[in-house]
């Protein structure tokens, strides 16, 4: 890994100040080498609880633990120098009450060195968000499609496509904004609603499957790099790494079987006596 010159890191107020200005560039990161690659290009790196599905093969994010988030947060913080780093609070770590949420968020920040936490938010956790913000923990909200609610919703599906759901998403946005979140992820909502939410809140909105009407964008890095054979409609694939990795591994396997690898240049020899 390369040596870094210390640069000033982007902060929560810097992100908040970007409302309506240059779009905020965000991606997920779970490992030190990937964070090092993403850092020069991104304003914000999210250690998302999607790590449970993307890296650990879990069916949903519900099984993700505090220890998993802390381990991946520490890895990302070892190489991210410039981008703000936000770590997701896992399911069950903040919903029961403000004091428990504060203790868990403080643990995440102390043990990883990250600058903020993210919670799936709405009127139910508004007091918790406010409690944390007032005590020094910057909070990123997450509204619309909330993956940790998958068991209540019966699956992952876009939100706000009828009047009742539209009102619900607006209520989530306003409650999160009033509670003091420094920015709000808006996931899986139609463009009209994303524009309405963005116009209704002070905090910048970060869209994922929520159109270009938001103040910034985030994607799961592994999705946009094409590491899976299926990606949601809203993901643009910027690379086809699954195919490239598959091709590389097939070539390696063929070389090993044909004794083409390792060659003499890749092999140690006895040192000649002086
Ligand atoms: O966990 C995650 O990666 C997220 C993003 C998709 C916003 O919450």
Describe the model.
The protein is α/β, with parallel strands linked by helices. It has 2 domains: 12-223, Phosphoenolpyruvate-binding domains (TIM Barrel), CATH 3.20.20.60; 225-261, no CATH class. Helices cover 38% and strands 13% of the residues. The chain is built from 11 helices and 8 strands. The protein has an 8-stranded parallel barrel with strand order 1-2-3-4-5-6-7-8, surrounded by 5 helices. Strand 3, helix 5 and strand 4 form a beta-alpha-beta unit. Helix 2 (32-38) packs across helix 4 (66-77), helix 4 runs parallel beside helix 5 (98-112) and helix 5 (98-112) crosses helix 6 (126-134). The longest helix has 17 residues, at 241-257. The chain starts with 11 loop residues before the first helix and ends in a 17-residue tail after the last helix. The mean pLDDT is 95. Bound molecules: 3-methyl-2-oxobutanoic acid (KIV). The site of 3-methyl-2-oxobutanoic acid has 11 residues, from loops.
Q: Main β-sheet, in a few words?
A: 8 strands, parallel, barrel
- Strand order across the biggest sheet? 1-2-3-4-5-6-7-8
Determine the structural class based on helices, strands and strand pairing. alpha/beta
Order of helices and strands: HEHEHHEHEHEHHEHEEHH
Radius of gyration: 21 Å
> What fold name stands as the CATH topology of the largest domain?
TIM Barrel
Q: What is the oligomeric state here?
A: single chain
Strand proportion: 5-15%
Write the layout of secondary structure elements.
Layout: H1 12-16, E1 24-28, H2 32-38, E2 44-47, H3 51-54, H4 66-77, E3 84-88, H5 98-112, E4 116-118, H6 126-134, E5 139-144, H7 150-153, H8 163-178, E6 183-187, H9 191-200, E7 205-208, E8 216-219, H10 221-224, H11 241-257
Parallel strand pairs: 1-2, 1-8, 2-3, 3-4, 4-5, 5-6, 6-7, 7-8
Helix pairs in contact: 2-4, 4-5, 5-6, 8-9
The structure holds 3-methyl-2-oxobutanoic acid.
